[in-house]
Amino acid sequence: MVARLNGALKTKLGAETIAASESFKLSQAYFYGWVMNQPDRDHRAEVSTGGFIDLRDDLAQFEVVGAKTADQTSADESEPFANFSDRYGSKRGKSEEELLALLKQSRATPGKGWREPMLLFIGSTVGKGWSDLQIKLACAPYSDGGIDDRDIQELIDYTRKKFHKSEADGAEDVDATSAGPKVAVDPVDLWGKFDPPTLPRGLLPDVIERFAHDQGLDMGADMSGIAMSALAVSAGAIPDSVRLQVKRHNTGWMEVARLWVALVGAPSSKKSPIMAAAARPLRKIDADQARDYADQRAVYDKLPKEEKLKINPPKQVRSILQDTTIEAAQDVLKDSPDGLLCYQDELSGWFGSMDKYSAGRGSAKDRAFWLEAFNGGTYSVQRVGRGSVFIENLSISLIGGIQPEPIRQIADESVDDGLLQRLLPIMVSPAKAGRDEAASPVLAEYNALIRDLHCLGNATLRFDDDAQAYRQELELKHLKLQSLEFVHRKLGAHIGKYDGIFARLCVIWHCTESMMGFGDIPAVISEATARRVGAFLHGFLLPHAMAFYTTVLGLSNDHDCVTAVAGYILCHGLTKITNRDLKRGDRVMRRLSPEAGLAVFEQLEAFGWLERTPSRLRGAPTHWLVNPAVHQKFSERAKTETARRTEVRQTIADAVGAGVEP
């Protein structure tokens, strides 16, 4: 029938092949003849003259002309895309720009006209050997239904059926950054622990690095904790009158040397001695300030009342703030515009004072105060009985220690307002035996450094051109890293602070290494300094944060649920999983709603365990294919999970079947 039609059209109209066998279905009737538009009848087209093709005996004479030759038949069988170029354009010759243009054209074409350019794109990519997932990923931004758009799947199925090009034929090499071929993904060990790096050499300011090294050997303590404590003390010593204009033209974004550091470790890690050693020179400065204030206050109090009215009372300038209420802290801060260091031997008490001992005020007010203290700036309080308190600069650096269990409980129970994410967590290793030697000269150098930093004068710093370019590179890198928020919200929020933390670290590095004389520093931060800070931030602080958020707080937002589903996959040797499987799992899995289950599957996909694949049935839920590598990599874990689940079932069976003795 097709040969007769094509032969007739070729003979009468000079046309080449018009129809293919796939165009005809035995369940439908096809006419050979003319049709006439009928606008007054809803634009219907009705047959004017002609008849059914299979009943037209006069078409039989054209069958030979329209029949395929042996060469054509052979070509079509070996290459299903043989006629694709004539009808739809070049199959393999389309560049990435041309493919992208087709996608943009499909989005820009109104109504159902989008199907033609989309079909051209899908036909070309099917010919190139792309998988269904690769095609859907490329089409997702230009379709209403995203990666699960049914119309896109129908077009893919139609194209594969039309050209007999199954997905299993393989894929050609495609750029991995686009919708390229699937690559082997190494699944993440959800039960493993991430070991933080040791303190790097050559990145820290020289005096601080040598101080951390020598004190670590003397105390038998982790050098990482000593170095970060020293950096926090340096941040508390540098006055806020030393400011860095972060961007070249934005004068509103200023950063000062202000850090919050948390040493996280077991009681045996010597967190308290570490912090005490680092804070000793600043404590001495604070003690001198307290004595000066006491002497001045004593003189002031002895003055006659008339003279007291003529002069201002002495200011209570301090450098260290310890266990205190926010009201007492406000009284100290109003006279300390250059900022100070909050020294907390146990951060659990600091958090607890906000969440449990707020005397009816509500912890939100305390937390808001500390959030403001991290950012700096003016702060005012109006209270009945206390009157008005104006703080010119609410600026506090923080150093404290805490054990893993308390901070895990704090993270689970407290309001997630970003207070925890402002801390730079340092995982402190257990202590070792120290040495007993004469004090190193670096102790005197460190003491002198803290005092010199405390005496710095006003300065507005800027990056040089190369350092500014490097800062912009890091800003883009931080934006990409913030995608970790999808897997771990707290970790993503912590990384969101890195633009400001990088600038603050640059201030500390620059001040500790570039002092030209008493109170003077250069105004320009070099690229070399910026790059060392960036290497320290990403090579040391970020891995410690990863270790903290993944091992102490859990690898993901719903770590218990994620590991429960992963264990179920290993235990049952699943090759795919859906929401229905969740109801067959343990108690943690069964209480997951469909939305929560989807979130868990998406996190497992991010960890390389699953791959999303839409169901072939319209309306059916999305399936998730299991990465075969998980069963190979975690075979031992599968045995452990199987044994654990079997033991639990047996325990329940024994308890239920034991009965009660009369």
- The neighbouring-strand order within the major sheet is 6-7-10-5-11
Principal-axes geometry comes out as: elongated
Radius of gyration: 36 Å
Mean pLDDT across the residues is 80
Category from helices, strands and their pairing: alpha/beta
Secondary structure elements and pairings:
Blueprint: H1 2-13, E1 31-38, E2 44-52, H2 63-66, H3 70-78, H4 84-88, H5 96-108, H6 115-128, H7 132-139, H8 150-163, H9 206-219, H10 223-237, E3 242-245, E4 254-255, E5 260-264, H11 271-301, H12 305-308, E6 320-321, H13 326-333, E7 340-344, H14 347-355, H15 363-375, E8 379-383, E9 387-391, E10 396-402, H16 404-413, E11 424-427, H17 442-454, E12 459-463, H18 465-481, H19 489-495, H20 498-513, E13 524-525, H21 527-552, H22 559-572, E14 576-577, H23 579-582, H24 587-590, H25 594-606, E15 610-613, E16 623-626, H26 628-633, H27 635-657
Parallel strand pairs: 3-12, 5-10, 5-11, 6-7, 7-10, 12-13
Antiparallel strand pairs: 1-2, 3-4, 8-9, 14-16, 15-16
Helix pairs in contact: 5-6, 6-8, 9-10, 9-17, 10-11, 10-17, 11-17, 18-21, 19-21, 20-21, 22-25, 22-27
Describe what is shown at a glance.
With 662 residues, the chain is α/β, with parallel strands linked by helices. It has a five-stranded parallel sheet with strand order 6-7-10-5-11, with helices on both faces. Helix 9 crosses helix 17, helix 10 packs parallel to helix 11 and helix 18 packs parallel to helix 21.
